[in-house]
Design a protein that fits this description.
The complex is a heterodimer of chains A (about 260) and B (about 290). Helices cover about 30% and strands about 20% of the residues of chain A. Chain A is an alpha/beta fold and about 260 residues long. Chain A has one domain: Glutaconate Coenzyme A-transferase, CATH 3.40.1080. A 6-stranded mixed sheet of chain A has the order 1-5-10-11-12-13, sandwiched between helices. Chain A has a 3-stranded antiparallel sheet with strand order 2-3-4, with no helix packed on it. In chain A, a hairpin with a 4-residue loop joins β2 and β3. Helix content of chain B is about 35%, strand content about 20%. Chain B is globular and about 65 Å long. In chain B, about 50% of the residues are buried. In chain B, a hairpin with a 7-residue loop joins β6 and β7. The chains are: A alpha/beta (about 260), B alpha/beta (about 290). At the A-B interface, α4, β9, α5, α6 and α7 of A face α4, α5 and α6 of B.
Chain lengths: ~260, ~290
């Protein structure tokens, strides 16, 4: 593999790999990526280990090809306007990777507002589809700037539902609740602990456990040995760089 | 011709039928196919104290800034390519109106219930989220079947009037969308006691499906009270395939909206006159940008 020594993967590319892994062997479900790195990742997954994934053009069409991020699609394989998209969410045939303005230890996510909801310090988007997503189809999160302002002890407005909130709400809430992974610019996290608290799964190369601890506003579950996020293969690097994101949009989202 | 009644009106005639205190639905989604000409006509009127039902975009921003909203029912308010709507943000941060914040799918269920004259429709969404905390009026319902599941009962979103924008319509109110997404405009019309359709062009009924499939006929005249021809009536939001979003102008709007002095100038330049003045001012602005 002479090419990989010449072409060392960047932090953004490790993030792409970590996000793509969320859709490994997913079958015929819709990948809904929010953000650039997840968009690159979903396309990479489809071109490699998850060929049956469904992708959208970001508007109302299911696309039958895999154009570069930002480029136009030339093959339409389906129609997915918002109302059908919401039905697909509720039917569970979708795995969304959302962003988060705040996320806590049990995976509660906030995109609505910062501060008191009655009179917010900073109004954000609103809950959007986070409540329906988290109760109905697999959900992962992508956070390009890992910081204590995002990884908080308690979110101000639960938009996406975390493990503790779903459990408290009862069996209808937990029936299809399925938080898969959190990927940040520092590492990969999941909730595979006895109490479903967030756990460090892997660190991106060059990142230390202390760095993650300092950037996280709650206590993380830490395994004894923390692996490093896997290397992209030479072919995956080629697909990312030459096919899916030739203009390097991923580098605008992740600091080097 | 169908022989059906001629429901053509001007934007101002439509707004003339609206009253302060009404519950008003606005179609489209974010900064897409919003009936902006009707919103601008509304801004020229003295109709206020509105309960607004909208997948929010600049319609919400403009009406919030003008102090016309008493209560907003929404799942989000965004300009899409610009994530945060500055007027909406500022209005929320100063506590300018009451908010009913729902999830997108809960909102869809509410519209569907409204259109079907049901008191509510069930949904799983909302459980475990703070949507239930900030909306203490929301109730749950237990499935009467063996599963016994407890679900959220989304109350019907029933409106006094709805405003939507279509690509084409005929004079009796049959509305056609030619873009890829109907959004929820038919549901808005069916869930409202009166519904008003603005459109890029009013054409003969026979022309509607001359080059388009019949499933583009989104809105049926039985749910429409009035039709207004408003060319570029969704500007600066998108109305594909007739036109995309005017991104440079939207950016200018958002920049001005974030600063009170700049906003005064923006309003004086673009919103002080009628719809024709608006489009002339936008044209002139675009020429200056070159």
């Amino acid at each position: 593999m002479t090419s990989t020594t010449e072409r060392t993967a960047t932090r953004a590319e490790y993030c792409v790999i970590a996000c793509a892994e969320a859709w490994r062997d997913a079958g015929e479900i819709l990948a809904s990526p929010m953000g650039t790195v997840p968009a690159v990742a979903a396309r990479l997954a489809k071109l490699t280990f998850s060929p049956d994934l469904l992708l959208t053009d970001g508007e109302a069409l299911l696309i039958g090809d895999v154009p570069a991020v930002g480029a136009a699609s030339t093959v339409t394989e389906g129609w997915l306007p918002y109302r059908r998209h919401l039905t697909m969410v509720m039917g569970g045939r979708r795995h969304v990777m959302m962003g988060a303005s705040q996320i806590d230890r049990f995976g509660n996510q906030n995109i609505s507002c910062i501060g008191d909801w009655e009179r917010p310090k900073r109004q954000l988007l609103g809950v959007r589809g986070a409540p329906v997503n988290t109760l109905n189809n697999p959900v992962s999160y992508w956070i390009p700037r890992h910081s204590p302002r995002v990884f908080v002890a308690k979110v101000d407005m639960i938009s996406g539902v975390g493990h503790d909130s779903a459990a408290a709400a009862g069996p209808s809430a937990t029936r299809f609740h399925d938080l898969r992974r959190v990927v940040s610019d520092l590492g990969v996290f999941d909730f595979a602990t006895p109490d479903h608290a967030m756990r460090l799964v892997s660190l991106h190369p060059g990142v230390t456990v202390d760095q993650v601890r300092e950037a996280t506003g709650f206590e993380l579950s830490l395994p004894d040995d923390v692996p490093v996020t896997r290397e992209p293969t030479g072919e995956e690097l080629r697909l990312i760089r030459d096919v899916v994101d030739p203009s390097g949009l991923r580098d605008r989202e992740v600091r080097a | 011709m169908t022989g059906a009644i001629d429901k053509r009106m001007t934007s101002d005639e439509i707004v003339g039928r609206l009253r302060s205190g009404m519950t008003l639905g606005i179609g489209g989604w974010g900064s897409r196919r919003k009936p902006m000409a009707l919103v601008r006509a509304l801004l020229r009127s003295d109709v206020t104290d509105l309960t607004l039902v909208s997948y929010g975009g600049p319609d919400v921003g403009l009406l919030a800034e003008a102090g016309r909203i008493r209560k907003l029912i929404t799942a989000f308010t965004t300009l899409d390519s610009i994530p945060l709507e500055p007027h909406f943000r500022a209005a929320r941060e100063r506590g300018a109106f009451e908010l009913v914040e729902l999830d997108e799918a809960m909102f869809m269920q509410g519209l569907t219930a409204g259109a079907q004259r049901l008191p509510f429709l069930p949904i799983r969404a909302g459980l475990g989220s703070d949507v239930l905390r900030v909306n203490p009026q929301l109730r749950t319902v237990t499935s009467p079947y063996e599963d016994g599941e407890e679900l959220v009962a989304v109350p019907a979103l029933r409106m006094d009037a709805a405003l939507v924008h279509m690509n084409r319509a005929d004079r009796s109110g049959n509305g056609q969308y030619l873009g890829p997404d109907p959004y929820f405009d038919d549901l808005f019309c069916e869930a409202a006691d009166t519904a008003y359709v603005s459109c890029e062009r009013v054409v003969e009924s026979a022309a509607l499906t001359e080059h388009a499939a019949p499933q583009t006929m989104l809105i049926s005249r039985h749910s429409v009270t009035g039709v207004a021809e408003t060319p570029k009536g969704a500007h600066f939001t998108s109305c594909v395939p007739d036109y995309g979003r005017d991104e440079p102008f939207q950016k200018a709007y958002a920049t001005a909206a974030a600063d009170p002095d700049a906003w005064d100038a923006f309003r004086a330049r673009f919103l002080a006159g009628d719809e024709r003045d608006y489009h002339l001012a936008v044209q002139t602005w675009h020429k200056e940008q070159r």
